[in-house]
Protein: Thymidylate kinase
Organism: Streptomyces amakusaensis
Amino acid sequence: MQRALELRVLVDGVDMAGKTTLVRALVAELEHRGVPAVRHRGMLAGLHPLQPLLRQLSSARQPDSWWTTTAYVFGGFLLDSLFVRLLPPRPRGRVIVQDSYGDRTVAFGMAGGPYLAAALALRWPRAFARFDLAVFLHASPQARAARIGLGRDHIDARDERTVHDTAFTERFHAFHLHGMGRRHDRLMVLDSSSRSPGDMAREIADRLLADHVPAGP
């Protein structure tokens, strides 16, 4: 018997940490438990009028551009928090498993800048759209470097930088966890260096369903 839950789970983190793999594993785990779920990327709102314009900007170069950071923070994710109240994500009646969001955009803007838009977002992080559970995914530099060497279809400048520029990645993690992380009431921090996607997905599903599914009689 399927249980329709309209919840939002965020899986966020640095490049090559295994976010997309974990998102797919979590969707499969929830479906296995009879909870309809779907992977989602981009803005949450069912309609975001600026999303087509934002897609023309290079997200890979965002840490090196104050303008791109400003556009994504203000024109993208902060507006998204307003639009999603009127136009919730589709399809309805499913757990939305979000593959990355504005949390990492702000952290990249601070690590590469710092840029004013990112600093203001850190001042008021709860202005961003909320999630019922957030998962911040980490992985060691060695694990992420190995994933680049496994023949991933698309490697961009930011992927390379997060693997090879240790100081940059440490700044990202500091602002991501201790800055944007405080906006989430329920936050899990997991390391994919030594755990399988399936194992992490089971732990996340346990936490999500324990928090949001009433116990039986």
Q: What stands out?
A: Residues 8-212 form a domain with the Rossmann fold fold (CATH 3.40.50.300). The first strand starts at residue 8 and ends at 13. The radius of gyration is 17 Å.
